[in-house]
Amino acid sequence: MSATISQAALRELVTEWIKQGKRVVGPREVKPGCVLYEPLESSDQLLLEGFVHPANSVKEFIFPKHEELYGYCITGNRIELIEVKPPAGEQVLIGARPCDAASMPILDHVFNWDYKDELYDLRRQLTTVVTLACTAHDDACFCTSVGLGPAAERGSDAMLLELDDGEYEVRCLTEKGKALFDGKLQASERVASVAAGPEKRFEAQQVWAFVKEHFDSPFWPSETLACLGCGACAYTCPTCHCFDIVDEGNIERGVRARNWDSCQFAMFTLHASGHNPRPDQPSRQRQRIDHKFHVYPEKFGEILCTGCGNCTRNCPVGMGVLSVLTAL
Amino acid sequence: MHNIYQPDLMKVIETRQQTPDVKSVKVRFLEEARGKEFSFRVGQFGIFSVFGYGESTFNICSSSNWKDHLEFCFRRVGCVTEALWSVEEGDVIGFRGPYGNAYPTEEWKGKNLIFLGGGIAMPPVRCAVWYVLENRADYGDITIVYGARSVADLVYVDELDKWAKHPKVRVVRCVDPGGETPDWKGEIGFVPTVFERAGVSAENSVALVIGPPIMIKNTLPVLYRMGILPSVVYTSLENRMKCGVGKCGRCNVGSFYVCKEGPILTMAQLARLPADY
């Protein structure tokens, strides 16, 4: 037994969610040739085919690019702190690629070890993820090298798999997913076939050993010399989560906010003394690989990479995790 | 919602200019009840902030036995410290913490202690010195070697005299060659050389070495020659931090998150980490 939904019924359901006041986010062609995960104003904006991966990732909807942590108000030498309103309002991420959905349970670790980041946790709880299984991949994709695949279910509450006639098989994977599609699905015998993923490109387990043994290797400057340090890889990565905390305002009132940051920037690790532990792009690229394939697995038991390929697609000089790791 | 990033408000109760570009600040919790329940261990750090300018990370350089206030010390070097420089008594600043691990003061019991500090790194040594002096019976001989570039750059000078009056405490102060004044009575030379000349016994000793990287680098061979092994030589890593709670991703040295597993570690532990600090 399986359950299916037609594309028309799916779009009607999206309209219903929007009407209910949910924020619905999905792949959308924001300008010709540019697909992004964006909040949808109407269900016809939802793109369900004809793209491999949006140029951004879904992380900004649970971990915003800019997030106010609290406000402050200064009168003379009196200071009042203003608490932020906790995130409220449900959201549905529909059409998330499996590599994006998988990033969320991976990120849960870092936001919850010891100190709980409730801003993040609340957004996570309010989010239902409806993944769209992949039917195609491009040269940048490498999910199969990090243990995922075109229909990997990690992090999904429900999964849509395309059938051959514009219908979708719907697999409800969690209670949240079941609730979202309750009463909307047709019982069916049809089961979608899963597309072949990209060929495996490297052995993730070997990366750790390599980074450990080749910390000062000429490999790093030779493979990463082209890096411009723009940070596009980190900003479009579903798992990069580094952030900065800054004050924005004036001497009377303002907010303390966190903004996305990237280990590719010189200021990221610069000490007050002028010393910088990672003084150049090769050392920063090494950190990015080391963090994803050694530090995070050692701390949390998981690779901090889902093989989405966004770092490669968005890199102005054609680098990315894949080019570095296949060169190992 | 509990917000881990929201600070406590602290009233500044005293500021003191220690050198031309270093100040120390004493603060107290505005909310009395918070102050009563608060505790920390020497070696831990806090994230201090001036609203409108931002947050900065400093060691809490007062002893954990002092319940009345917290103290930190900073050099005027960037945006936040520039703003802190003009903070006055009565002003309110932010504080989050305590974060990180602490000095293993339990393990140090019964040992002779060697404290080596350089320049602005004296405050994190200072809290440990006061702590052990307040628990004097638990520790053996104490040697403190403190050096700075010049006489004017020495911080907490009056306290060095107080420490020296305690029994079985030896305080050696030094300035870099050329940094002395005509009436300077201390040693002239760099911390490692002055320490070696001081002829301190290595027997049953542990050392805490905090200072600029070059001082640490040159002090280690001296300690090693004396027979004080890297497993009992402690230091503190001073990496740039933002969150202090293991999330923002910048203070790590390999898998070692300085804000959580550090900042205090032994030289033996440090030697096992990648050279990324």
3D architecture notes:
- The complex is a heterodimer of chains A (328) and B (277).
- By secondary structure, chain A is an alpha+beta fold.
- Chain A has helices spanning 7-19, 98-112, 118-125, 175-181, 204-213, 219-224, 232-235, 281-300, 310-313, 321-327, and strands at residues 2-6, 23-31, 34-39, 66-75, 78-83, 91-96, 127-132, 158-162, 167-172, 186-188, 243-249, 253-260.
- The radius of gyration of chain A is 21 Å and the shape is globular.
- Chain B has 277 residues and is an alpha/beta fold.
- Among the domains of chain B are: 8-99, Translation factors (Elongation Factor Tu (Ef-tu), domain 3, Beta Barrel), CATH 2.40.30; 112-210, Nucleotide-binding domain of ferredoxin-NADP reductase (FNR) module (Rossmann fold).
- The longest helix of chain B has 14 residues, at 213-226.
- The interface between A and B is large, with 56 and 44 residues.
Produce a short descriptive summary:
With 328 residues, chain A is of the alpha+beta class. Chain A has ten helices and twelve strands. In chain A, the strands form two sheets. In chain A, strands 3-2-6-7-8-9-1-10 form an eight-stranded mixed beta sheet. Chain A has a four-stranded antiparallel beta sheet with strand order 5-4-12-11, with no helix packed on it.
What characteristics describe this protein?
heterodimer, A: 328 residues, alpha+beta, eight-stranded mixed beta sheet, four-stranded antiparallel beta sheet, 29% helix, B: 277 residues, alpha/beta, Elongation Factor Tu (Ef-tu), domain 3, Rossmann fold, seven-stranded mixed beta sheet, six-stranded antiparallel beta sheet, 7 helices, 15 strands, globular
Tell me the layout of helices and strands.
The complex is a heterodimer of chains A (328) and B (277).
Chain A: E1 2-6, H1 7-19, E2 23-31, E3 34-39, E4 66-75, E5 78-83, E6 91-96, H2 98-112, H3 118-125, E7 127-132, E8 158-162, E9 167-172, H4 175-181, E10 186-188, H5 204-213, H6 219-224, H7 232-235, E11 243-249, E12 253-260, H8 281-300, H9 310-313, H10 321-327
Parallel strand pairs in A: 2-6, 6-7, 7-8
Antiparallel strand pairs in A: 1-9, 1-10, 2-3, 4-5, 4-12, 8-9, 11-12
Helix pairs in contact in A: 2-3, 5-8
Chain B: E1 8-19, E2 22-29, H1 32-37, E3 45-50, E4 54-59, E5 70-75, H2 79-85, E6 92-99, E7 112-118, H3 122-134, E8 142-148, H4 157-164, E9 169-175, E10 187-188, H5 191-197, E11 205-210, H6 213-226, E12 233-236, E13 252-253, E14 256-257, E15 264-266, H7 267-272
Parallel strand pairs in B: 7-8, 7-11, 8-9, 9-10, 11-12
Antiparallel strand pairs in B: 1-2, 1-6, 2-5, 3-4, 3-6, 12-15, 13-14
Helix pairs in contact in B: 5-6
